[in-house]
Records
---
Amino acid sequence: QKEVEQDPGPLSVPEGAIVSLNCTYSNSAFQYFMWYRQYSRKGPELLMYTYSSGNKEDGRFTAQVDKSSKYISLFIRDSQPSDSATYLCAGPARQLTFGSGTQLTVLP
Amino acid sequence: DTGVSQDPRHKITKRGQNVTFRCDPISEHNRLYWYRQTLGQGPEFLTYFQNEAQLEKSRLLSDRFSAERPKGSFSTLEIQRTEQGDSAMYLCASSLARGQHEKLFFGSGTQLSVL
């Protein structure tokens, strides 16, 4: 079992929709998590990091961790075509361990 | 540009040839990582350096792979006797390891195609 599992998608939504991206993790020792955004043919770009349970908000993005269920979520409000990318969740295994990514397309 | 820089962006080689990639991290960052990413997958850890010391290598890193960071600044990743299975995006990342919450910053990667 991979330490971080992610819904593979792909996910296609209309512009303005609320997007929910989800991951699960297996290692109870994980204390913080990161979301990376990766555009085609580019390296991953750090979007948000969050630790402990609860929500963290940054503009249109909200990261949520539920430690009881080992569930990580990223919500995007008022999604834009420029949000079209692959979103990767990551947890701090011995080294940063990534999910397989969810490809998101926001249609204008 | 003060980000992580990787060179070349693309490399096409024939099976059996040796290739070398270079990574220039963000200047004040003391940690440097190499990851490999194949289509539809997240990056997989290969190895990392703290300054010039190589502290960990993944089981993914076969004997044909070698990485160096001679002066604790730039790093090179060499693959000897390339195989078609080595075709992937090779990503470099750097971080300033401080406290618990390490943030990795990635370069744009080197896309390797082995024919």
---
Amino acid sequence: NAGVTQTPKFQVLKTGQSMTLQCAQDMNHNSMYWYRQDPGMGLRLIYYSASEGTTDKGEVPNGYNVSRLNKREFSLRLESAAPSQTSVYFCASSVSGSIAYEQYFGPGTRLTVT
Amino acid sequence: AQTVTQSQPEMSVQEAETVTLSCTYDTSESDYYLFWYKQPPSRQMILVIRQEAYKQQNATENRFSVNFQKAAKSFSLKISDSQLGDAAMYFCAYRSPLISSGSARQLTFGSGTQLTVLP
């Protein structure tokens, strides 16, 4: 049981390049999330998927797109990377979007945009 | 919008001693959840403890306990008998029961407290 996995662990991009961050969970969770973590700050929600086929914007969605490919997988795409998107990105999942359920986090992807 | 404030960027504690990390939050809601997450150097976010706002009893998990003061909107974490493995960044987080536009019950995090455990 791997929990939440993310690929890649590290990535360096040039400004304007695109890439997709992959996330998968094997806990049969319905809800999945993408967060970013910047120095001196807590995690901020980028996008959220309550269930397969639905996505919703979080606090900081600009410059990102997401795809809930199936129940297990939730990808985050940067179409044209900018230095302001240098951050650590975390994927998380929970049984559902209900307040009571704990979110389980992946190990993170450290992205640098030069 | 809810805000979460951790006013101690860094704390240190001697091994086997007790340390308390502070957290305050601002909300107009009456029902919500509060969490403490631990982030060691591995970057993995690990849930330490959770508190339901409607419960008056403070949550405890082994050496970890909270002091939840709902009226004061304060949620501090006490770590007893500190161990070297407790060294990490600790985040306080708030979760709303309501779906607000674009946020869908997200976790709102504080800026974190870096805890050092001295041998």
---
Amino acid sequence: DAGVTQSPTHLIKTRGQQVTLRCSPKSGHDTVSWYQQALGQGPQFIFQYYEEEERQRGNFPDRFSGHQFPNYSSELNVNALLLGDSALYLCASTRRRNTEAFFGQGTRLTVV
Amino acid sequence: QKEVEQDPGPLSVPEGAIVSLNCTYSNSAFQYFMWYRQYSRKGPELLMYTYSSGNKEDGRFTAQVDKSSKYISLFIRDSQPSDSATYLCAMSVTGTASKLTFGTGTRLQVTL
């Protein structure tokens, strides 16, 4: 049973560019959340998607947007990249009312 | 002031020692309390979760929540080198599948 898979694993982008990160949830899960983890910090909640709609959002600017597809997979888009966007981006999936969030291994984004 | 405070360590202990990890928080609305373990270059994995106040034990791990003091703890008995990782506390108002607020993580090193 595949867990949460994220792609790509590593990415280097230039300031001002746009990036798209992808996440496939664990089998049987329908809810996807995205987190940003800066070096030496805990993950920070970006937003959560369920039934193809954004259900909750953390304190992140509109440059961060997302999408969920009918097969429950999700994308995180970041526009106008800043150096401070360099971080590990984690995807977590759950069943809507399940008790445990399963995390993927993350995408390491470096903005230069 | 951060909603969740956690000493980043690093914490170094000899094999077999009892480890105590702690977090404090300021948001009294938090009802769900979790501990995640994160190995280097991996996503967090859930160790234990507790609803409201009380203790919970699972093998070598014990979680304690004191809502009156806004203080949670994780104890690891008979620590092993394989326990070397970063331990993150996380909290939620509405459930473990909803928005999680994390501490910064404590890096633990168990030495032979």
---
Amino acid sequence: AQTVTQSQPEMSVQEAETVTLSCTYDTSESDYYLFWYKQPPSRQMILVIRQEAYKQQNATENRFSVNFQKAAKSFSLKISDSQLGDAAMYFCAYRREYGNKLVFGAGTILRVKS
Amino acid sequence: DTEVTQTPKHLVMGMTNKKSLKCEQHMGHRAMYWYKQKAKKPPELMFVYSYEKLSINESVPSRFSPECPNSSLLNLHLHALQPEDSALYLCASSQILAETQYFGPGTRLLVL
């Protein structure tokens, strides 16, 4: 069974600084998808970024980028120029290529200090 | 447009009540999902519908009854719930199974 581990229960970052959230996963599959979802206090889960395992290029969405290391089974999220609105719980998630289920990590609470 | 809507936003019910949660999407997605989320925990999958047919039931107690009357609408009927069922119930949809899921804002349920 696939598992996703987020080893940082909480992180803090100063506004305008950069922060990296860690995620590792375990799978025997070669093709799969990885996601970062953000859940602010309003509780809506928002897709931040998606990475296809067959793509070597790291995904980027504005201030959000990932460092995808397939051999190491690592998928970290970098947030540049952190803003107060980035404060949220961040979930890393895995899905097999043709799978129906998302496997979530335990989440990392990100606090942004002004 | 990646909007999934859920009603109501909040619901308080007694253990003998019957209530329903509603989820709607107009993105033409053919897969819809129900999740249960406890505070500070990741969402747990409950049900998956594909083309209006139940595809996955994650051994959810029968007091939760899903329904997909059409491709845009997903309901979750609640009956004889327990206080431990209090949680945030999230709906999600994807174009088809095995595609990126987009979540609604959730219904916060309190069972007294």
